[in-house]
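[job 0412] stage=complex_fold ligand=flavin-adenine dinucleotide status=START
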Amino acid sequence: MTYSAFRIVRETLTGNTGWKPAWRDPAPKAEYDAIIIGGGGHGLATAYYLARNHGLTNVAVLEKGYLGSGNIGRNTTIVRANYFLPGNSEFYSHSLKLWEGLESELNYNVMHSQRGLINLFHSDGQRDAFVRRGNAMINQGDDAILLDRDGVREHLPYLDFEQTRFPIYGGLLHPRGGSARHDAVAWGYARGADRRGVDLIQNCEVTGIDIQNGVVRGVQTTRGAIRAKKVGIIVAGRSSQVAAMAGMRLPIESHVLQAFVTEGLKPVINHVISFGMGHFYISQSDKGGLVFGGDLDFYASYAARGNLPMVEHVMEAGMTLMPMIGRAKVLRSWGGIMDMSPDGSPVIDKTHVEGLFLDCGWNYGGFKAVPASGWCMAHLMATGESHEVAGKFRLDRFATGHLLDEEGTGSQHNLH
Amino acid sequence: MCPLCGERDRREFYYYGAEDFLNRPAADAEPGAWDNYLHLRDNPAGVTKDLWYHEMGCAQWLVVTRNTVTHEIIATELVAERAK
Ligand SMILES: Cc1cc2nc3c(=O)[nH]c(=O)nc-3n(C[C@H](O)[C@H](O)[C@H](O)COP(=O)(O)OP(=O)(O)OC[C@H]3O[C@@H](n4cnc5c(N)ncnc54)[C@H](O)[C@@H]3O)c2cc1C
Ligand SMILES: [Zn+2]
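[job 0412] stage=complex_fold status=DONE, emitting structure tokens
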């Protein structure tokens, strides 16, 4: 069923009785050409592009819960292409271009809104770093505009420009940056993959990976064994557990990241804003809630809930930057489990097992990467070769020293 | 929580990473040993041992045995004691 304005009018007139489920609920077949473990954003996008770009439709996505139950439904939806290092820069640039055509591509409203992202800076050193980053973005063909203090004031008059602890020196504006509706991205890719013949199998946890003589043969699941010629592990925070089923020890530590949303308010914050000193960022959803967050809780965790010290820290940082939000009531907070890598960059690569592929290490920036990660992982699984914009996301880069440490914080998983 | 200072606020402690950081390879070890030490982790969903620093207390490094799913602290010991 194609969605359109005409369709909405017709359904309105006929009592909305014509809508059909957006995807099928098939039982697993005995064998597939390719299996994707994990029905998050990256897994669903990979399945979609396997079908769309490579004609591989005998594909299943196996999800242990329901589609979108992981980080894809828990993130704060910032979409940007403001990376600095070669390797990251071209990848996120490619992803943003895919975002810009995503709604017509998927025939689905993912509510992608390029409202502009402003990263604030608060010292001469930070300004220099952002000038350099802005130049790297422009060199990559993306957009960046340096704002001085008055320039920031024009866009964000409600910030506290008087406070002296972290004075606002200026900001880097990325006009094409913005946000999108997280669940809709998962649903859009799910529906697109299903319409091309991919089986989306929910409540199906992978419990083992079958390997014979170094070649992958299929997987064991809570709904029985399923054979496959190729298997992709795309499970974000659970990467270490699933990779261990194939005897691998990954460069990943799982950490909890929290986020918060207030009650719905009239439009007040038009941009996505990040506070360069206090680890705080904020935007306003289309429903009106202020969506904000900060740093990891900092200790390895699978609890999908955080602790109060980070809640307090995030609130303090928000109040320092924009005291006006102190009147808003926080409605909910939640946490998601992040696959933190020791250099802050991801892995899209083959493994030591033939036919077994790995996509992980998204840290807390994997939402904006969903389209390009799916695109490149599908390319890798279909052709056996890395896509040109993901060629540096190798699993062996940690052993060979070709790290992609965007923030320059060194080999400590929780510092990226 | 700290063997010397007792129960203290979470915010007094700094988290470094898994206890793998205690097993520093010899200077002439194979590159693979360094990869293992710096990057690769078991990353268990359950009981783990990791390194914390009582930064705003006794300034001791601790090995903490805890559960990554429930956040329960099971045991703590001083790295200095263990080295003996
Ligand atoms: C609070 C928060 C804020 C964030 N903010 C941003 C942001 O602003 N911008 C940004 O770019 N990124 C952000 N992120 C990061 C982003 O959400 C993640 O990097 C990204 O969603 C991870 O990829 P995914 O969607 O495939 O993961 P997930 O949705 O977690 O998908 C993995 C799936 O694998 C399934 N699975 C696991 N084990 C198994 C198994 N054994 N068998 C079958 N299935 C299994 C899980 O159930 C899950 O559904 C944020 C994350 C959080 C938690
Ligand atoms: Zn102490």
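The mean pLDDT of chain A is 96.
[job 0412] exit 0
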